[in-house]
Amino acid sequence: MIHILDTGPLVAAFRRTENKDPFTPWATRLIRSLPYPLFTCDAVLTEAAHFLNSAAPLLEAVERGLLVSRFDTQAAAPRLRELVKKYADHRMDFADACLVYMSEQTKDCKVVTIDRADFSFYRRHGREPIPLILPD
Fold it and tell me: Kind of pairing, strands 2-5 and 109-112?
């Protein structure tokens, strides 16, 4: 089983204590309990760095091997384009398309997200629900 991290839980877990949101305790506990490494993509890391106002803690986690991003946008581009087109009415963003694609590449995975609405709507391989870990 691999775990694929979306932006929300990553930001919540890396957020400084003075900026807590309702997801911080959940994300912190969950990310500490999951087996490492945790997987993501550069699009998610970029979004998370933006929301955290710093890439430093994320890059440290990548350097330590806790977070892994081995996403090949060039190779994935045709499928990403299909996904973005399919979900155009839902306004799928680049990071979400990458995560759906990653879930299609690994049968035994779960996407860790706080985005229940979008990821409950998206399907991998066109019809299959994406296995998710969501906050209560």
Answer: parallel
Q: Which residues are bridge partners to 3 per DSSP?
A: 110
Q: How far apart are CA 58 and CA 5, in angstroms?
A: 12
Residue 19: per-residue pLDDT: 58
Nearest 5°: the CA angle 36, 108, 130 is: 105
Mean pLDDT across 35-57: 97
Transcribe 9-64 into DSSP letters: HHHHHHS-GGG--TTHHHHHHHHHHSPSPEEE-HHHHHHHHHHHT-SHHHHHHHHT
103 contacts 4 by C-beta, under 8 angstroms: yes
